[in-house]
């Protein structure tokens, strides 16, 4: 891979983000859809505050690029990518609540419960989770019904009790329970990794690819999901709030168990290199088609915010 590949990735990430942002604006414009009664203005404003506030849109990028490996329908992939971003943003809104991580800033802006109130933030998150499944189930996501059903099932399991939500439960208990290395890896695979794994696996589902391809991309997602959290824990230790757009140093101050706290920053950097190598190896069967996904793995491990 070359500097040209890195530049191509940065351009593609920006272009994918713009496309997702445009679709999200359309989906959140307040229009009442068939089967709905009304969309409260304050609720819609809170949802837009929590979604249309920038961000790298990495998970949508992974959906669209993994689908592109198989020349899958780009519009369908875009809609699935937007659905996943709704789930991700819902999780951030709820994570920021006083009962969870109690954060005042997200991407340099007041969190939803600070800009509005706690009850509205809870409802905004609830609405976004529901909207995600609405988007995928809608016939506008022009895929065969069995593929839409497979996406709904995979996303539900990635986001639910055995995935992201369960991981947050383990995370809330981490200060008290002080999990060992295996427990930390399980927590991170669920809280952070599950949605990233789904993002990569989704491309194969959208394309109707072979089961081996679906599993290979899921494994790729697991590798970069762990890398993402390791990098995040390093940044929490080394970056400042302005750089990150949110409070930093909270894990260390709270005595929360992380792999970085357990083994140190140098160990974590070595692990990141190994995870990137694993991710690249998993993509070898796709040759040059996977260049941007390989760059995404590097980006996840070396990002500075």
Q: Terminal Cα separation, in Å?
A: 23 Å
Number of strands: 2
Tally of domains:
1
Order of helices and strands: HHHHEEHHHHHHHHHHH
Round the mean pLDDT to the nearest integer and report it.
Answer: 94
Shape assignment: globular
CATH architecture: Orthogonal Bundle
Low-confidence stretches: none
Name of the CATH superfamily: Farnesyl Diphosphate Synthase
Beta fraction: under 5%
If strands are numbered along the chain, what order do they take across the biggest sheet? Answer: 1-2
**Total helix count?**
15
Please summarize what this structure is.
The chain is mainly alpha-helical. It has helices at 3-27, 41-51, 58-68, 74-95, 112-115, 118-137, 145-159, 164-177, 181-207, 211-238, 241-244, 250-254, 259-263, 265-282, 291-302, and strands at residues 105-106, 109-110.
């Amino acid at each position: 891979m070359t500097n040209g590949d890195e530049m191509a990735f940065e351009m593609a990430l920006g272009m994918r983000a713009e496309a997702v942002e445009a679709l999200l604006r359309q989906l959140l414009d307040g229009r009442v859809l068939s089967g709905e009664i009304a969309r409260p203005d304050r609720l819609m404003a809170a949802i837009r505050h929590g979604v249309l506030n920038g961000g790298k849109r990495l998970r949508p990028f992974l959906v669209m690029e993994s689908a592109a490996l198989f020349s899958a329908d780009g519009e369908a992939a875009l809609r699935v990518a937007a659905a996943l971003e709704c789930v991700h943003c819902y999780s951030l809104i709820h994570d920021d609540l006083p009962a969870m991580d109690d954060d005042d800033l997200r991407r340099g802006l007041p969190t939803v419960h600070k800009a509005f109130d706690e009850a509205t933030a809870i409802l905004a998150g609830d609405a976004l989770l529901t909207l995600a499944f609405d988007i995928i189930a809608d016939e506008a996501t022009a895929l065969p019904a069995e593929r839409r059903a497979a996406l709904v099932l995979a996303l539900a399991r990635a986001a639910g009790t055995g995935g992201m939500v369960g991981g947050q439960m383990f995370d809330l208990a981490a200060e008290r329970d002080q999990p060992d290395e295996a427990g930390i890896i399980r927590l991170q695979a669920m809280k952070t990794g599950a949605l990233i794994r789904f993002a990569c696996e989704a491309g194969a589902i959208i394309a109707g690819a072979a089961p081996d391809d679906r599993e290979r991309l899921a494994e790729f997602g697991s590798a970069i999901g762990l890398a993402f959290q390791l990098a995040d824990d390093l940044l929490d230790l080394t970056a400042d709030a302005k750089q990150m757009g949110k409070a930093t140093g909270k894990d260390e101050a709270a005595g929360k168990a992380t792999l970085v706290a357990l083994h140190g920053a140098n160990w974590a950097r070595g692990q990141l290199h190994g995870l990137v190598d694993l991710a690249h190896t998993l993509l070898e069967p796709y040759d040059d088609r996977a260049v941007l996904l390989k760059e995404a793995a590097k980006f996840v491990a070396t990002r500075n915010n």
